[in-house]
UniProtKB/TrEMBL annotation:
It comes from Brenneria alni. Belongs to the UPF0125 (RnfH) family. This is RnfH family protein. Pfam families: Ub-RnfH. Gene3D superfamilies: RnfH-like.
């Protein structure tokens, strides 16, 4: 099965074409990819992951042609958090 795995970190974007036998979970895809070596601080159990912008569990299975994405955490200051109450 062929799929893409992607991550953006600051000004750097990485996208890797992968091929693995089915079934494959998001976690397995990430751990088998070069992104796990390039970004060792990424943890599939702590960082959100998704397929085509839709959040998914790391244990979700991927399908032929999917784009697996690893997202950075959203960091907000206390002032930004207060804006939600308005």
């Amino acid at each position: 099965m062929k799929f893409t795995i992607a991550h953006a970190s600051g000004d750097e974007n990485r996208r890797v074409e992968m091929e693995m036998p089915e079934p494959v979970t998001l976690r397995q895809a990430f751990l088998a990819s070069p992104l796990a070596v390039l970004y060792p601080w990424l943890d599939p159990d702590k960082h959100r992951m998704g397929i085509y912008g839709r959040l998914c569990s790391p244990d979700s299975e991927i399908h032929e042609g999917d784009r697996v994405e690893i997202y950075l955490p959203i960091e907000r200051t206390a002032g930004e958090a207060d804006d939600d109450d308005a």
